[in-house]
């Protein structure tokens, strides 16, 4: 498993959940991992596990909602590893709730941590990605839910990321940069919290997944991302890949 040997991957929100699973999977394929997030302790745990498995990883503390943090982090990663080949935008503050309940402040946190952070990170990494780079942005099937109640703000934030993903793919393809989005369902801490908070809704939701299970952060989501950013998917760009067991129908 060395199809990413020599590559450097910067992954946000890699201290837990989906980001951590992606970090493990890409490291298993030989990538050197820049583990990025706000909480140093969680980043250290992810790095320790990657190293225990024989991989290479380095933690970088940064808040994706702070522009200066993004620029500093990207510069530090490029200096430490000698470049950046893969960017995974995973970190996100999730603004859940009904339209009359979600505050402007909560919605703007979703914007700042989602499409704005995604755009800033892609811009900052662009010079390093030119030639043979890959970007994966995490989105959601919330926009195509059978019942969008309580998910309007979240869907709006994630659909903005999908639009930026498509634009980047079209604009940067000539530069040798592929840009795709994934819409995963995985048993992350966020998903586990949602299941605990809304058990009836969660039970109904699980029944709509053809494969009858929620994905594993590393085996189901991480390994798919490893393929997407590798040469095996060298002709894939501008797409949204629903890693959700067949649940969503994008139409």
From TrEMBL:
It comes from the Bacteria. Residues 7-185 form the Ketoreductase domain. This is 3-oxoacyl-ACP reductase. Belongs to the short-chain dehydrogenases/reductases (SDR) family. InterPro entries: KR_dom (IPR057326), NAD(P)-bd_dom_sf (IPR036291), SDR_fam (IPR002347). Pfam families: adh_short_C2.
